[in-house]
Amino acid sequence: MTVPLLLVLLLLSSVPPLSAWDPDLELLDLVEEIQINFYTFLSVEQDASPVEIKKAYRRLSLILHPDKNKDENAETQFRQLVAIYEVLKDEERRRSYDDILLNGLPDWRQPVFYYRRVRKMSNAELGFLLFLILTVGHYAVIWSIYLEKQLDELLSKKKKEKKKKLRPAEEPRCIGPDRSDRVSERPHWQDILPLKLSIWLYLSIKHLPETVQEVRQFYGEYQQLKQQQREEAAAEQEVAPRERRPKVKKPKQEFPVYLQEEPTPPRYEEAAASIEDIEEQMDDWLQEQRAERRKASGWAQHELSLLGRLMVKFPGGSPGRWEKIAQELGRSVAEVTAKVKQVKDNVSQTSGLVKLSDLKAPPLPVRSLPAAEEEEFPAVRRRNRKSAEGGGRV
């Protein structure tokens, strides 16, 4: 209860006065300071016009000016004259002054009265007043708490008495200690706020070394706890890799059970096909062997004549000329090109160009070329075999 009251008072004391009230407050302060009717001070009537008020101000300013007035209070009188003229020349402030003349200054029943008093106080006076208000409010709160507890206990006691009267024949029950016996302690003058603050400050200073020691002890225990936690974490990290992994039982190997299969009759078609493949492989091998022998023995006369015919068949500029000639001769491209170059060199060394016609001689009969017959015989045999198989399938 004391804390909210303190906050409210602090807020009220820190709020600056509103600027709209400043002219009215200045007017009230001026009226309270001069304590003479402004119209009487200027020697004019209350219903005088602004022109008359201005003439009176000029006349008095020549008299009360500090340069011409040798009185000690000349500056104060001239300042009051200027303030009176500023009030009366303004229509709104003049009406406010006329209202003050009619109703008088605010009294103690109006908030402006206290505000004007507080506004004129110094910081020390304002602090003392605030502390006094807090002290009285704190003591009033203590008494209110005490009276509230007393009222609660009184009401609870009356309720219990009514219950006892309504149930007189019932057996007594085990009832705990009566709370009404516990009477709150009555507030004393030692409970006022200044004494409470003084006692609290004295005890705080007295127990300051013990408090510092307890804080240090608590901080040391906290550091030890953190160090212990770090050591435990490091130990757990070291132990974790060393932990043995659980043994996993290897599954038993199941050996396959071989069943005796029934013998299947041989398929003669596959056997025949395999024999034909073997014959083709043998024919290819024989051709490769013959080609190797030809390479080792050099170029024969019939190969040279065949080379001439192939060069006529595949003239210069035809795509893949040397590859096709090499394929027909059964030799590599390098061998064919080397032989052609050799023949050209021989022709260029001899006189005349008739030697090139030797390469274009008519082909010899097949009967006189046993090597060509040996090369063509496997291919003919394969064609005959394939045609026989095709006729059998149809």
Automatic annotation (TrEMBL):
Classification via InterPro entries: DnaJ_domain, DnaJ_domain_CS, DnaJ_domain_protein, Homeodomain-like_sf, J_dom_sf, SANT/Myb
Annotated localization: Endomembrane system; Nucleus
Coiled-coil stretches noted in the UniProt entry, renumbered to this chain: 268-295
Protein name stated in the entry: J domain-containing protein
Alphabetic keyword roster: Coiled coil, Membrane, Phosphoprotein, Signal, Transmembrane, Transmembrane helix
Transmembrane segments: 126-147
Domain J: residue ranges: 37-101
Organism domain of life: Eukaryota
Signal sequence, renumbered to the chain: 1-20
Membrane topology: Single-pass membrane protein
